[in-house]
Automatic annotation (TrEMBL):
Alphabetized SUPFAM superfamilies for the sequence: MOSC N-terminal domain-like
Protein's UniProt name: MOSC N-terminal beta barrel domain-containing protein
Recorded GO MF terms: catalytic activity; molybdenum ion binding; pyridoxal phosphate binding
MOSC domain mapped to chain residues: 97-268
UniProt cross-references to InterPro entries, sorted A to Z: MoCF_Sase_C, MOCOS_middle
Amino acid sequence: MPYLAKILLYPIKSLDGVEVEQAKVLASGALEYDREFAIINKQGKFVNGKSNEKIHLLRAFYASSFGTSQFGISDRTISLQIPSQKSQQVFHLDKERQALAATLSDFFGFAVMLEQNSLMGFPDDRNSPGPTVISTASLIEVASWFPGSSVDEIRRRMRANIEIGGVEPFWEDRLFSEQGDLLSFQIGNVCFFGVNPCQRCIVPTRNPNSGEAYPNFQKIFVQKRQATLPSWVSSSHFNHFYRLSVNTRLSTSEAGKTLQIGDKIEILPSKS
């Protein structure tokens, strides 16, 4: 039986994520606290892994005062480890945002600020701002394509929000239909629309700790993904095979509902 195995939130877009036990759905369909903040330069452009590989050198940690690692429940702090500095710097995301921006500006060598969007966050796909979905088995399979890579490293390269356990590799490809159609599925009591397989960018090609590119990562990925694509997959979305995980949307009726580790996952019957 497919079940919700992991929930990962990324409070600051492009920085490290935090694993949580539960997450609340916003009216936009996004998960509360996910990509709530983004690093922006003076031109209003994102400073992220696509545009600046130096960001991979930063380490971010989030934990509540109760030590539960449930970001946002009681603390709202980030501990930032900057290369060449021995100790972590701790900032409150609401009260010390300017100080955090100044520290990041020093690190990047140009002025940046932290922008906040508590309603939807800053998803890559604003038309499908729901959480991205992948299976643990898919991460294990993809890790096997790249000698020297661990499952956790591939997880950090792909940066999905929801991880499904109890299924075979690429089971999540069942969660979308042909182009123009939406497939309905349910996690616990939360209803989702599966939209399409996520088109990957340059970020997965880089080591999440160093930013160093894995030789021929995209070429290897495309060859292996095509070779292992299940025969039952709705192929109209695959104009290329550099795609992994599923983009989703949620109705406003799901706002306020909570996803919980262990929730069962069910594909719902199609409706005319």
